[in-house]
Amino acid sequence: MALADAVNVLFLDVWEFNAGWVDVRLSKDVVPSLLGLLPPSLQHAHTPLMHDLAQAIFESYPSLTFEDPSPAQDEHRPFSHMLQAAASENTDQTNIFFRNYQPLSVIIPWMRLLRSLFPTHVRMINIGVSYEGRDIPALRVGVHPTNSEKPLGPRKTIIISGGSHAREWISTSTVNYVAYSFITAYGKSQEVTKLLEEFDWVFIPTLNPDGYVYTWETDRLWRKNRQQTSLRFCKGVDIDHAYGYKWDAESHAANNPCSESFAGEGPFQGVEARRFANWARNETENNNVRIVAFVDLHSYSQQILYPYSYTCSTTPPALENLEELAIGLAKAIRITNGEIYGVTAACEGSVEQATEKKFWPRMESGGGSALDWFYHDLRVKYSYQIKLRDTGSYGFLLPSKHIVPVGTETFNAIKYIGHFVMGNKGIESEEGKSQGLLKEESTDLATKDIDTELRRRRMK
Known about the structure:
alpha/beta; 15 helices; 12 strands
């Protein structure tokens, strides 16, 4: 494909892509060079999405002045700065932490505060150390019942991670929001309390702390980590494709270290990817842990992706189970805020696909992904990558007003995973009436939608 070749020649920053479109960041001066490498059919098949990138970047940082986002609604409502909000109050109205994106220097003390306020079910752990020597912090949330007469087997654990790509701030904020929602609902919500008793939940806001700090201090749109490469002036490895399973030697080795998708010169060369994999394997082999689900949050494009990423020619075991849960996640999100998330295999659009023995070139390699490594090498049955809002209007510069809506819909999706793994196939909530949903109706509706979608996919 001519566009894929042009991207490699010009070292363009591809923001997102699928079978129908590609979002590319480039300056006006580069447009003629790009068009000169494209066939006539693509000469006019483009449109600007963001006319003032600098302004959009500026607006993604926290405002220096405090503004109440909804003064009319809150005119007679007392504001609380406390972390532990009343059960009837919404997080967006009581916690200023989620009104803006937060730097790592704020996130880490906030995590420590949660640990101090909720010691019964929150622990702060360290996944490993980054290339520049920063801790990769995480919150382990869960309650181990002591009145069980059954012998205790491996502790079932669900991992929610974000921030593999530094500029995807909404993924980091969403991990924090979901963690906060679980932590503060324990003992108030029977649903959440049951989930915390059944599973340990590990929340990792950013797997790439060095890159995340760099986006705050130097370059808002930095993607990779900050690791030194073979080219002194081109730092960074794409840690999301630096894992060992099906790491594509031909594609990755041919990549220039200056490329946004450079994944190192060998598997696990990305320091943070290696640390995370070592931690996860040590948990399962030495700490009596069984990881039952892994969800890696990214942005953007509103998609729920399941294995495999490296190829579309291999069908993952238990494909129907992966699809069933993925469709349920999309349903949970749609019920929450009406947002539509697509469901597909991660390989579609990211690697070559064969059609009548014709192969389309890769836009970027899908090999070496965290998604595939957890699913295949660590045998995590339910492994997903969720690409959050939006579908291109703002891209990685999603305004902070979306933090709470995205967090809310993702929280409901993550709860759905817990119910599904426990054997409940519907969307269940004892607070259903207060949410405008009847438990029985929502469960039946979700089940019917999932069955219909699975039948449609089998008929393709």
